[in-house]
Automatic annotation (TrEMBL):
Keyword set includes RNA-binding: yes
A GO biological-process term: transcription antitermination
HAMAP family in alphabetical order: NusB
Known function: Involved in transcription antitermination. Required for transcription of ribosomal RNA (rRNA) genes. Binds specifically to the boxA antiterminator sequence of the ribosomal RNA (rrn) operons.
Organism: Thiopseudomonas denitrificans
Protein name (record): Transcription antitermination protein NusB
Lineage: Bacteria, Pseudomonadati, Pseudomonadota, Gammaproteobacteria, Pseudomonadales
Gene Ontology CC: cytosol
NCBIfam families reported for this sequence: nusB
Keyword annotations: RNA-binding, Transcription, Transcription antitermination, Transcription regulation
SUPFAM superfamilies: NusB-like
NusB/RsmB/TIM44 domain span: 25-148
InterPro entries with a match to the protein in the record: NusB-like_sf (IPR035926), NusB_fam (IPR011605), NusB_RsmB_TIM44 (IPR006027)
Length: 162
């Protein structure tokens, strides 16, 4: 799965306009790389090299992409355990796109506290809308909402206080 503007319809991903846009593009590519790793079991270095060749990385937070790909692959069991209790089926029964999104979000919620929980939640839902099954974003939203409550409760409480 490589980044293709046709996948986005009239809303192509942002490119190279600040840290937020670079992170958003990196997150999209990272989800696709995790998806590829899940399906092909390909070497991480090969996947990363392929993504750098196939995509313009001048508009990408490359450090985030690289860190995330390695962390998710090396901690996949621990990340799956974080959200497995919120599923209505086994992890192995999930749609591969939704699984890649949940793993990415679990990594961000648990290890990237510099990323606000609302960003992780919203970006996960948007990725599911763009790449997932018709109503996959609703499922992803439900799981991520529960995961956020478990892993980021203090941050959520502070946000609700205003």
């Amino acid at each position: 799965m490589s980044l293709n503007n046709d996948d986005y319809g009239d809303n192509p991903p942002p490119r190279a306009k600040g840290k937020i846009a670079k992170r958003r593009v990196a997150r999209t590519l990272l989800m696709q790389a995790v998806y590829q790793w899940q399906l092909a079991g390909q070497n991480l270095n090969e996947i990363e090299a392929q993504f750098q060749v196939d995509n313009d990385f001048s508009g990408v937070d490359g450090e985030y992409f690289s860190e995330g790909l390695r962390a998710i692959a090396h901690q996949v069991s621990e990340l799956d355990e974080l959200f497995a209790g919120f599923l209505d089926r086994g992890v192995s029964d999930l749609d591969p796109v939704e699984l890649a999104i949940l793993r990415l979000a679990a990594w961000e919620f648990s290890q990237r506290i510099d990323v606000p929980y609302r960003v992780v939640l919203n970006e996960g839902i948007e990725l599911a809308k763009t790449f997932g099954a018709t109503d996959g974003h609703k499922y992803v939203n439900g799981v991520l909402d529960k995961l956020a409550s478990q892993l980021r409760s203090a941050e959520i409480n502070e946000f609700r206080k205003g």
